[in-house]
Design brief:
single chain; 71 residues; mainly alpha; two-stranded parallel sheet; 4 helices; 2 strands; globular
Length: 71
Amino acid sequence: MLRQQLPAGMQLVTPGIRPAGDAGGDDQKRIMTPADAARAGSSYIVVGRPILKAKDPVAATRAILTDLKNA
C-alpha cells in the first residue's frame, strides 16, 4: 500500500519479521514472514529475536535468507 503512495525509490524498512511457523510475536502486534515482507515491497527487513534466541542462529539466518530467495 505504501509503495503506491510514496515516491519511487523510497526505501521501506519492515520490523516484526518472523519465520513461517514462529508464533512468538513477543512485543510485536503485527508480524509477517520474510517472504511476505519481500512480496509486500520491503526494501529491508528487521529480524532480531528469531535469530538471537535461536538454538542455532546461523541455521535460523540461513532459513530466513532461503525464504527471501524463494519470495
